[in-house]
Amino acid sequence: MHRNPLLGETRSLPGVRVCGVSTRDDSDKQGLVLDRVMLLGRTFEEYLRYFAIEPADWRGKAILDVASGVGSFCAEANERGWNVRACDPIYELAPADIRARCEPDLDHVVQALQGLSTYRWDFYQTPERLRQYREKAYRTFLDDYERHQGIRYVAGCLPKLPFGEGQFDLALVSYFLFVYEDLFAYEFHRESVLQIMRLTRQEARFYPIVSFEGRRSTYLDRLREDPLLRHLRFEEVRTDFEFLINSNWYLRVTHRPERV
Ligand SMILES: C[S@@+](CC[C@H](N)C(=O)[O-])C[C@H]1O[C@@H](n2cnc3c(N)ncnc32)[C@H](O)[C@@H]1O
């Protein structure tokens, strides 16, 4: 049984399974401290930067955005003729229920980020510009979601997703695994990686791979050394995008060729 810390969402997001209360001591933390997963969305442009995606490599391929939430990658990519689907537990919900959650989460995070030493502002410059990106993402998502709920947007909750084996060429996971390592156990990460690789023919990319403190996730080495994951190859790839400190890396996971 996995605990899913979508804390505090019982009232505004009926139907989403909620459990897990953090009792950890956060007094030594310098970065963003969150006791639940936030409904915050990124844009197509940010995904291309996070995952160093070369459009020519992936246009026409089947792509799954996992834990996609209120991000607009799926909407904007399909608008450009890409073949992208998105999966998140919130897609059980009506658009109005999701909409009600977007603004309070965004307010909370934009306010909480200010003054933290764990962010570099070269790209966004100001909290207002960051907010514009996030608003663009959730508004674009909501418009698309109203038209494509249940088709492009499929309800699903890691570590078990409702897709067939090898259905996608590429899976992307942004701001869910690794960064929330305080809230999710190692075993949840291992099973999630296994599940995502079951659906993925070519590769999966995970970003960021640091905690909100900007520290490389302690789960990365455990995954590499885990005997249950021997058939997978893990590669940390450098990028030139960094907002959360040390987040200029993504994790690429591929299938090792079978031994003859
Ligand atoms: C911070 S948001 C990231 C959204 C998007 N990937 C982006 O970067 O814009 C984290 C998302 O993880 C989703 N989530 C929480 N628990 C999950 C689970 N067990 N399986 C899949 N997604 C989950 C939340 O609903 C939320 O939409």
Structural account:
With 260 residues, this protein is an alpha/beta fold. It has one domain: Vaccinia Virus protein VP39 (Rossmann fold, 3-Layer(aba) Sandwich). 31% of the residues lie in helices and 17% in strands. Helix 3 packs across helix 5. It is globular and about 55 Å long. The site of S-adenosylmethionine has 20 residues, from loops.
Low-confidence stretches: 1-23
> What's the number of extended β-strand segments?
7
CATH class categorisation: Alpha Beta
Which percent range describes the beta-strand content?
15-25%
Q: In which order are the strands of the major sheet placed?
A: 3-2-1-4-5-7-6
Give the full name of the CATH homologous superfamily. Answer: Vaccinia Virus protein VP39
Total count of helical runs of at least 4 residues: 7
Provide the succession of SSEs.
HHEHEHHEEHEHEE
Helix content: 25-40%
The unique ligands bound to this protein are: S-adenosylmethionine
Briefly note the CATH topology name.
Rossmann fold
How many separate domains make up the residues?
1
Principal-axis shape: globular
Mean pLDDT reading: 89
**SSE-based structural type:** alpha/beta
Span between termini: 36 Å
Secondary-structure arrangement, i.e. CATH architecture:
3-Layer(aba) Sandwich
Structural Rg: 17 Å
Q: Biggest sheet, in brief?
A: 7 strands, mixed
Fold topology:
Blueprint: H1 44-50, H2 55-58, E1 62-66, H3 73-79, E2 83-88, H4 95-113, H5 127-148, E3 153-155, E4 168-174, H6 186-199, E5 200-207, H7 219-225, E6 232-238, E7 249-255
Parallel strand pairs: 1-2, 1-4, 2-3, 4-5
Antiparallel strand pairs: 5-7, 6-7
Helix pairs in contact: 1-3, 3-5, 4-5
This protein binds S-adenosylmethionine (SAM).
